[in-house]
Structures
1.
Amino acid sequence: MSNILEDNHLKAKYVIIGNSAAGLSCAEGIRSGDKKAKIMILTNEKFDNYSKPLISYFLAGKIDLKNIFFKDHDFYKKHSLTLLKDFNVKKINFRNKEILSWDDKKVIYEKLCIAAGGVPIIPQVELAFLSEKEEPGNNSNDSHIKHGRSGIKSRIISEIDIKNIDGIFTFTTMDDSLKIKKYVTANKIKESVILGGGLIGLKSAESLLSLGIRINIIEMSGRLLPSSFDKTASEIYEKAFRDKKSSVSVNKTIKRVYIKNNKVVAVETGDGKVIYTDMLVIAAGVKPNIDFIDEETEERKNLVFLRGIKTDKYMRTEVRDVFAAGDIVENKNVLKNSIENIAIWPLAVRQGMAAGQNMAGFFKEYSGGFPMNSVEIFDIPGVAIGITNPDNFDKKHLEIITDYNRDLNVYKKIVIFENKIIGVLLIGNIERAGIFSGLITNKVNVGKIKDLLLKDDFGVIQLPAEYKKHLVTGDAVAL
Amino acid sequence: MQGRLGKVKKIFIREEFCIACRLCEIYCQVEHSKSKKILKAFKEEKDLISRVLVEEVGFNSFAIQCRHCSEALCVEACISGAMIKNKNTGIVICDENKCVGCWMCIMACPYGVIKRNISEKKVASKCDLCGDEEYPVCVKNCPNEALQLRDI
């Protein structure tokens, strides 16, 4: 192989860590400017590529392995990309431009894009290992765990526990989805606890329900999807879960997980309630995957702002020749004028493209973004765009208009600040939701059309003349 | 760009000529029905979806369909790889076999011209510029040239 040097190291002009939305978009971006130079993509997984958000559809049996790929099988060949699978990054030596794997492989780059995505957050839950005779929670005095008086072994959960103990899962990768599928089939699982009512929690819940498994969602905050839903939106879905003989408990945590014969048997909530279960999905959110950036180094201090890798408008990091894109990134939230991690697919693609083009020598700007997401659970579609819970905005200039039709399960909420829309929540009816995304992005003054926004026939025709004109002129196509 | 007629064209929306007759919607529904026959489609097929939308307020109206954007936000937002912009023709198409109905495209499209089709498998439904036809049927059947296909 031509890419192997004499000293058995791999070398490429462009190296991308990450094989998902941002990573592959980055590769396309590089190729748009540099058709020749070697591009190497490193992934710690064993798949060509697959869409992470689709793992819940796979678990539910709605799509098969053939359709979970979001880039064609000839994508790598077409763009001359070298994909290195099972490459688990241990550390990056930025000074020598080397990437080291846990099994002592070494890759040398000229320009690097870190698009390593996110990893699940593992909350500080206690594992209590029961003997054959012991039962979960039957000792009302908590101290037996701490002091081991009754001989029950316990420790705080770790990633290795999730790998080794039967019935505990995270749900962010294809591997997770395959493991869960195998476990629920082999053990004929009838009930599962899900820790976390965010997007991953809800999607795993829906998939498990479709497999005939009842679920209990335990959510720490006061509502489902706390970052984008409000109480009304949450209650629409909470009710849908209850209708499926499942439960949602808000303002609750899990403090302890009981293990017997290396298998989950029950969880205990913060208020001492024991729920018997064969299965626990930990869906407490994700965080940027920056563990391989050595904490002791100066580069780490330069790269990381709050919890992800800070990038400028060219997706450059503070370290020379190192770019970043996707769920690992901290960049501008244009609605808050703050630097933060916004882990959503469209921005990952956009950032990857910008990073790639800049790596190839163009100056392609990424101008920031804002959160938005779409879910459909139990046939109830929901879209949340921008700031839907405007707690930190000056109330004097803030208007919130809502419409809730209980019979139809349709809820609409529009958040307006200084006559511009900054947030939209649509549940049950998401027709033409994108018009609102456009109004937010383009900071269109909606002062004169406020009373039309919630109407069912609201459309492009009611938009302010200048903006409308801009919309109806479109691009050319070849026929 | 190269397409089936070998020309670069654009659908122009001419608000001043639209009379909101909605014939474009009718022909679009028939074109994208199973039978492609007007009577059969409207009498026997359910959930016909028009991919061109007539908007109307008072005497003002126009028909709008996918603008096939050069930087298409629906393509960027698509998590399944179903929404693709053809690099040769510029046409944005949703591969309904790949689409999972997550509605990210509906959330992203600033024109609001992608629709939720839930009649069978959930898929996003949008203008394909009538791939089987010589001209898009909405343009061909507009009695007043309120939709025009012009060379550019």
2.
Amino acid sequence: MPTKVVMAQLSPTMEEGKLIEWKISEGDAVAQGDIVAEIETDKANMDVEAMGAGVLRKIVVQEGATVPVGTLIGIIAEPDEDIESLLSEAEAASAVVATEEPSDAPEETTAPAETAVPDEAAAIDEAAADETAEAAEEPSAVVLPLETGLEAEGGRVRASPVARKMAAQEGIELGTIAGSGPGGRIVKADVEAAMAAPAGAARAPAAGAIGGAEPVGEPRLRDERVEASQMRKAIARRLAESIGPVPHFYLTIEVDMGRALDMRSELNARADGFKIGVNDILLKTAAEALVRHPQVNASWDEDAIQFHGRVDLGIAVAVEGGLITPVLRDADRKGLRRISLESADLIERARARKLLPEEYQGATFSVSNLGMFGIDEFTAVINPPEAAILAVGMTLEKPVIEGGEITVRRRMRVTMSCDHRVVDGAIGSAYLATLKEMLENPLAMVL
Amino acid sequence: MAVITYREALNQALREEMVRDESVFLIGEEVAEYDGAYKVSKNLLEEFGEWRVRDAPIAELGFAGLGVGAAMVGLRPIVEFMTWNFALLAIDQVINSAAKLYQMSGGQYNVPIVFRGPGGAALMLAAQHSQSPEPWLAYVPGLKVCSPATPYDAKGLLKSAVRDNDPVCFIEGELLYNVKGEVPEDEEILVPIGSADVKRQGDDVTIVTYGKMVHEALRAAETLSAEDEVEADVVDLRSVRPIDVPTVLASVRTTNRAVIVEEGWPVANIGAQLVDDIQREAFDALDAPIARVTGLDVPMPYARNLEKLVLPSAENIRAAAREVCYIS
């Protein structure tokens, strides 16, 4: 696939840039990350890095020329690849550029170029080991892959408001679909076409099935139904016969809450008067751990496992005459403050019996905390079709032996009930280990 | 159900309200002896006598002011302007007296008056006699402004206007007077001021309009359905102050697209206001920029062919609807 090299917007005020120097010539081979050119922005001289590999097939904008942000300046492609359509685009662009005066204003400062772009992309690649190769080729601000609805100008996707909203609800990344409207604008019909396309094509984590609150950033997981292996089917069948229909098993771990509680005290000592509860930290951590162990954020569905693209946490709330689990949507994409505000609102309205049905249906994982009732530890019953529920006990001061010494620590015991058809002991243990690790080193969550 | 003309519907409304309430009277040029320039007040002189159906001299400011004074002391005048173009001579009474006295008297005086007459273009009446006054009037706090398209709405809205305790400007249409439609005979019809009506249902594009343009919009909708497989939701505002914004928004939220049609000039008109309401309240529902179809930004030419070019047509409306539906 050919890769466009464009005049990137490297500062918020940058409207045009001057091409100082091409670092390579037409015909030279380019590897991803190579510096291909130097440009002068309104603030500094910066390097342009190639995100795609191949050969610099065409220099569209010559050294010394000043062009608007978003202008195609070069094309990287395989030696024999067809770049005709791009060349005609370039001709059209140069006709405009020719009428513009080159700006010669010297600039004194030099800031580091946008190295964050490739670094970040690499980091994402590493973190999301199970992401597809397609996702790794996500467009960056500097070099844009073709064939998507992405506009070169400042990297902003042109889409109508309703198309944007629908795409967010359906978990479709706008950059992955083509726009049929004027100037490549993605319109409702394009999103509908992407929705109708086979799953996996343009469709990232879909939230449609679960519905609900406003989107917060891009979804971090993916909706996916994976056919169960013969072994897994056997496990599902046999265990359901034994303890059915949802074969529970239980894993308990003890967590040192010292640092988490200290962190909470520090946050709550801030001048803005905003208070965060222990439960908010638990919800945040449980959600983050789910992102790292998507197998737990899943459901048994006939002979397959349905992985959920969204992390929607059920919060078990005792109400007069029973219990209800309002759902905190997209908990993995919300900060502590927002989790705190939303969960407080949900819990309050749950107690007042004022929840709407969509507010207590469709969780992907639940947390039940009986710490405030003085319970040390307990087991909770899974709310199908969720695959697990976390039962949280009271945090107690306890004698703990460390390095041969008895010291007093604040400890909390959590027990996870798992649906054995979906979550095996090893997966559940790994989830709890992550949870423990994060609660004991809460600062690491910002990494 | 009886099928009657817009003219007859207005005549019925006037008669019924004059029978119901003896404080209602009609004044204007030629309304009595001649039955009205457009025969809207036919037979009213005969039935109600010269005290309640009053011919006025050609002095718009004078008889509009007489109406405002009468309204202040307890009568319910209906002031007919032969056309709204002539009302420009009376506009000081409409705006500076009728619209403001309630507020300026600290609520001591209501001004329950109806100013009515035809507006907009008819046929070759040229620059001075083809104007659409709705945006001018809708601009003024203290006025209500109605512009019905059908006999049913004309009757129901005029009756509501007569009963309203505040000044209502009622814009009819020379080319609407002969439009026919169903109006129930033995039933009191009251159309609330400020309520829109969906004249045709469709899911693909919202066409918002009022007055004479409702009929152009409906013609365009039929073509869109037959030729383009586009089903238009045609929202007839009926009143342009206050505007029934919720009905417009409900439609736009369904169709994701809006075309606003009005006969008059494009600058600072009703559509410009509605665009603001839609973008603010239904931004996330929009799939295309809102399109507006208006008369051209020129004084109306006298020549028949040029007049036709200036006025919005079903073809213009269809083209705008195709544009917002991304049909090229």
